[in-house]
Design brief:
Four copies of one chain form a homotetramer. By secondary structure, chain A is α/β, with parallel strands linked by helices. The first copy, chain A, has 14 helices and ten strands. In chain A, helix 7 links the parallel strand 8 and strand 9. Chains A, B, C, D: Keywords: Isomerase, Manganese, Metal-binding.
Chain lengths: 388, 388, 388, 388
């Protein structure tokens, strides 16, 4: 039986990257609701992200999205962040909001559109050098809405070509992670719809090209932990975009829709070495707080990941292996469930306190008055969202 | 064997209502692309809708959406439409874009929010009197994103109460149609998620409350034609919102994603009397032409419905019944497929010409120069979309 | 904050019915694996079921399946069961294994087949009188595999007619529960595919006709707890068939695939009065232990239901309501999650001991030697399965 | 515009392999219905398969399933088949029906079970030499039903190892095709659940290891034609198992559930060179005629493939490319749909007659009296099914 004390030191290396855009407004095609206190600038987003880290100790890096987080002086932005105790992680490109990309970006049959999209990534790489980011994340909205609209095969070849150019421009220490998504915004075919496609594409590029797994980007019923195990086995799991979903790409708080799934995913991460010291796997959130508070929403999210990681670490793996090898189905399942049903929250609260963090980070944040301050101070201006 | 000549007269009574908003811009949460020539006013939308009817003879009515189509003088708008050969059909309410509805409208636990939503419907009913509309269509975005966020049961009771008030305000000749939707924009629970809920709610209201079936609003794999048959049997099928989907509520052109499904749906409509003279079932489109041309997109849609209706009418029902009663599975299926695989397009082209319509409506429209004119004339202003 | 002591007395009224067939072999179309010790007779199934009750105190009744559990003398079978501390619950009919039902049973267009199926149900009612069963459960495999094979509408009318005859034959204290299922064994249309259909059919019958909700019989993504809330609201939730699934009708151990879903379902049961003293809702398992041990599989199942019921009862409903009414999304969700994440197992172990039950029922059963005995004694004969 | 005469010669090279087991009985876990005339021996299955080829000219090869089609003398079986005008194609292994495989076969943690499964494949290879078969098809039922039951990662490694041994035993002209399947009979994880896994596994083996795509083995909503295009691009599409489905692995007649999907699949096959002279792609059926006639069911199936191939060949690809490059969404889609809606049946009937085949193969078969003969002659004995 694994005890919390056995895993306490493993928890210290947990770091979950926050997406800057999670602090801006988001919504559906039907409506984007605003919220008092929403940031209006990259700096304000970073300030909010730093709050999450301050109270949880779990979120030392922030992911940027270009052009939403474009600034004139990235060095200054970096200092601003560092002063607040956070640094920059992944840079996310955007090839879905320029009118030029209506029918595709890196897969466009129009060479000038492809070049524009490639150039955007080269700009992102340049920004990465300035922000000290390791990962260039490409989520590609490219696809078609109607059968016949595009040539699926040609687009795949064009994608390979475009990615090659981008990959070649990466610095030695930089990586490219290619995200896949089942559907949306394209409704017939998506150019990178599944892990197999992402894997085939990055395998053709080289060692520093890896797959990004967004937990909300699969067909109904997909066994995501299997993909985790497989990509770790193939040495190609680069990063996670955590969130949860009941239906499609709902982008809810990670662990909210199916906590047991999150547990199984994290167990395979641990099992496959993805949580080991020095693991190449980056952990990140990618969520939309459409109606709930954003800062506490992000706190809830990193705490959910932490709690589930603790449970995954608590699995008695030697006993599990024994039951598995004995084909004792119920015993093996029971060992897993035992860890899942363990209430790690009290032990984590203590552990946090022992490290100078509040036992209840959300309560501490609420008591701090920060929320009231930003609601008061951030009057006027344009609240940040996906468009800006 | 049924011949086209046997069904030609049945085709004359086909009428498919167009949604005014299909002529405005639409998109996803990631981007709404604009298109040259997009209408900026209700009048321009109606003018475009009238073009669809002019060349196809299939779309004599236009559905309005309040507040998107609010005008000062509905009588004038009605004359404007009638001068262009179309009249007004359904009035669609909107309880998802006001900030007040962030956590619900007709189901809100806040009585003042419910009243606001009820008042909006009373205003719609008043507009219906002015526009000569029969149907008030309620699609409710209400729902929650997280388990526990709302009390599912209480909300259902509040919905019943709100609907009762609205229903009571209907004129003698007016109807209420309640649409259901599997999910989106709510991602955990939706207050009217399935036909059963819509049916239970409208059955409690009275004879003039009916179900609206949107073909894109079901769980994956749902047999929609079964629901059609069931609702017709229960006397509660009020109207259709036609569109098609590969994944979720994609809102693609009707028949584009699964033509055979459209055929099966229309066959059950015919079988169940929903296409009979005097049938209470209203046929309407509800689609989003995110990337394709809107006017020709609507033309393609009504033609798809017409072509499939023709195929559904061509089914040799006496032979089918005989094969069914003999449990000859392949023969019965073959009789259905025979109609589906019949290429009705040449006969329909001839039939159109015999009625003074162009054989190829889309080509005729394209040759008319209308598109070039609106692209040129509709410079400036704000293109209509879901927000306005 | 609700304490375990507050809910302890509520737990005493929990009773979960066991299906006799869960103790026989089951499998997929690919293979049914046998297991040493599998019962060969209804008596042996009942003896195994009694073991589950003996160690958990949760399963005082057993459901029978006719003809699988046909015996010459039901009074003797009843005494046999009572001697082992259990009584009989639901009687399940079977209209899917006789060659006559290849193309339908209660919906067959052949009047003699319908009569045969009706007569089978009349026989079941007769058996119910002898076994003291209250509920006649009808799960109908009827449906078609190919479009056109059957007339969906006519079949629905025939179903209504057949059910009426059966309903009329019920005793005053007997009930009819109609189960729905999304698909399988029919692969195109199923005659009772969703709760709406089951509801419409039983509503037409009368007060003693109710819906049976099998948790594995829904389309992917369906919000089952919503259906629970709705059926309770409509007064038509008759019974549950508990199991769990990752994909289709997998019939796994309840709570195994998505424990949080089970929690949400049970919370709505509690919320809607379905767990109240005297509630008409019957709780039953319907699972297939294809590869795991059957007796301990059933134990695991009833314990899962008990643990989740405890968590559902622990929800601080006044606090929840307050957060809901304040539209505090994260707080409301947090209150629900707090109960879900509470580890009720130690308190339940104590509670069991306080009632003379073993703290760990599965360990106690394993230590009892029963399994070894039946493996040794049940050599020879034909192991019970779905066919016998 | 492509004319039928332009594609007529392309149609002559179409060959669709029939699975011997399609002529035996099949069903669901609920019931396998027998049918008069069902074969009792491999010879009788082959005789029935030969009928399909005789009347359609489309099915010159038969796939065998070991052990279901085990005989003492394969040379004799081969002569028997050749006398009837057919030869042997793929040999399908079976690692799901032996009690030893309850918890896995090629992935079992028990080395002796793995060896047994490997030996079975070596035996299949030996049979292939005798039957003149090129392809060894491996569909692996391996997987688990409960989280924790097995170690996903280890099983994947064991699979790679087992496959390597089998691959090494292949003759120079032989190939291994690895089929993937979303789920069933395993209900939690499947060891080869998706094309990515099959691709990663066969890529590690060598050039003569390829992916087998069964059209019914995907998650809901999966864009199958995309996978076709991708695998052709990667040079790894080995074969098809054709069938259709509304829900899961329904194994209905190919084209029956979604004819447009079959069209899109075949269009990508043509587009990607999979139908070219000398293409390595093998086309095969894998279906279950649970309730419909088997011989005419197979006829209907190969005719469906032929009709859809004709439509796919009719697509005006130069015009399509032009519309695609112009981003004319509706025009491009329209060109595809134009081919789909073309009724190729009359031209195919003529074409068949011109080649000495009956215009209506099914009618010709029915008129032949073969069915009546086998019904009369095949009295007694045990009808073939999946178990024998």
């Amino acid at each position: 039986m694994v005890q919390f004390s056995d895993i306490a030191s493993d928890l210290t290396r947990q770091a979950i990257e926050l997406p800057s855009w999670a602090f801006g407004n988001s919504g559906t095609r039907f409506k984007v609701f605003g919220t008092p206190g929403t940031p209006r600038t990259p700096e304000e987003k970073i300030a909010d992200a730093a709050q999450v880290n301050r109270y949880t100790g779990l979120a030392p890096t922030v992911a940027l999205h270009i052009p939403w987080d474009k600034v004139d002086d990235y060095a200054a932005l970096r200092r601003f962040a560092e002063d607040l105790g956070v640094t920059f992680g992944t840079v996310n490109s955007n090839t879905f909001q320029d009118d030029a990309y209506k029918f595709g970006s890196l897969t466009s049959t129009d060479a000038s559109v492809r070049q524009k999209a490639i150039d955007h990534h080269l700009e992102c790489i340049e920004i990465m050098h300035q922000t000290g980011s390791r990962d260039l994340k490409i989520w590609l909205a490219d696809g078609t809405n109607y059968p016949g609209q595009g040539d699926i095969r040609t687009r795949q070849d064009l994608l390979a070509e475009s990615l090659q150019t981008i990959y070649a421009a990466l610095g030695e220490e930089q990586r490219l992670v290619l995200e896949y998504k089942f559907f949306e915004p394209a409704f017939y075919h998506t150019d990178v719809p599944d892990w197999g496609t992402s894997y085939a594409q990055v395998a053709a590029l080289g060692d520093r090209a890896l797959v990004c797994l967004d937990t909300g980007h699969h067909a109904p019923g997909t066994n995501i932990e299997f993909i985790v195990a497989q990509l770790l086995r193939l040495g190609k799991l680069g990063s996670f975009d955590f969130n949860s979903r009941f239906y499609a790409d709902d982008d809810l708080i990670v662990g909210a829709a199916d906590p047991f799934q999150l547990f199984r995913i994290l167990f395979e991460v641990v099992r496959g070495g993805g949580y080991d010291e020095g693991s190449p796997v980056a952990f990140m959130l990618d969520q939309c707080h459409n109606i709930e508070d954003k800062i506490t929403g992000q706190m809830r999210s990193v705490l959910n990941v932490q709690e589930m990681t603790a449970r995954a670490l608590l699995v008695d793996r030697p006993a599990l292996l024994e039951a598995q090898n004995a084909n004792d189905v119920l015993a093996a399942n029971g060992i897993l469930m035992d860890a899942f049903y363990t209430d790690v929250r009290p032990a984590l609260a203590e552990w946090r306190e022992s490290r100078g963090l509040p036992a209840d980070p959300i309560a501490a944040y609420k008591a701090s008055g920060y929320q009231e301050t930003i609601v008061a101070e951030r009057a006027g201006g344009v609240q940040a969202g996906w468009g800006a």
